[in-house]
Amino acid sequence: MANLREQVTYKQYDDPDLTWDTAGDRDSPYRQFIARHILPFIGDVKGQSVLDVGCGTGWLLHLLGERGASRLVGIEPSNYARLAARYYPEAEIIQSPIENYPTDETFDLVTLVMCTEVMDDLETALGKCARLIKKMGRVVLCKGNYDYFCADKYDYKLTREEYIPGHETVVKTERPNGYGTTVDIYRSTERVLSLAGAAGLASTGKIQPFTPDEAVIRAVPRYATLATQPMMELVELRLGSHS
């Protein structure tokens, strides 16, 4: 079997077979689903500076700006950066991997929404995030639930390459009815916290798994088959070593 890990790259999101930009922006059911959970989890951002890593089309930056964030910066290595700059001119958008982002600026909040899955060296990426937050700043991750994304489901075809049993697996997901094929690294929360600790970030203990809610199931009925299975987790980190 070919090495799937070598196929884990942000460049896959520039594949024309992926239709995620035409699936809508902040008004898509999937993004609204995440927003319903991540915005209360993040809480008050009034007057704060925000860096969204892997910002995609920039939808989260826009919503945080509506809630009073005073500085909005997005890092997006794929060509979705061009869409973000077009959709949300109130934000500064940089097309670059986070590891290559040159700045001395620090932020009150750094967010990463469903992008750690294409970071092969997550420890290095989180180490960069640690250097980009202020002393009392936060890193908030929204990550795919390991069990959900590694499981057979719907009409998807999954090919798996396990590295750390039960904690880290590369998954090639082929979706026959749109949205194309992606290759991602799914990690347990325990694995992410271990890498975060090595990168100088500690869990605050604020961890929130969430399942498909009624609104997203109405919009995407297939989610009903796994309605009790957490789909994602939110994790808050601050500077310090994870023990």
Report on this model:
The chain is of the alpha/beta class and 243 residues long. It has a single domain (25-145, 188-239), classed as Rossmann fold (3-Layer(aba) Sandwich). It has seven helices and ten strands. The protein has helices at residues 29-42, 59-66, 80-87, 122-132, 146-150, 189-198, 214-219; strands at 49-53, 71-75, 92-94, 107-113, 133-144, 157-164, 168-174, 181-187, 201-210, 232-239. It has a seven-stranded mixed beta sheet with strand order 3-2-1-4-5-10-9, with helices on both faces. A three-stranded antiparallel beta sheet has the order 6-7-8. The N and C termini lie far apart (37 Å). The relative contact order is 0.16. The model has no long low-confidence stretch (mean pLDDT 92).
SSE map:
Elements: H1 29-42, E1 49-53, H2 59-66, E2 71-75, H3 80-87, E3 92-94, E4 107-113, H4 122-132, E5 133-144, H5 146-150, E6 157-164, E7 168-174, E8 181-187, H6 189-198, E9 201-210, H7 214-219, E10 232-239
Parallel strand pairs: 1-2, 1-4, 2-3, 4-5
Antiparallel strand pairs: 5-10, 6-7, 7-8, 9-10
Secondary-structure element pattern, one letter each: HEHEHEEHEHEEEHEHE
- Kindly state the number of beta strands: 10
User: What name does CATH use for the topology?
Assistant: Rossmann fold
Output the CATH homologous superfamily. Answer: Vaccinia Virus protein VP39
Count of individual domains: 1
Annotated CATH architecture: 3-Layer(aba) Sandwich
Strand fraction band?
Answer: 25-35%
Largest sheet: 7 strands, mixed
- From the structure provided, what is the oligomeric state, counting identical versus distinct chains? single chain
Helix content: 25-40%
Task: Please tell me the overall pLDDT.
Answer: 92
The separation of the N and C termini measures 37 Å
Total number of helices: 7
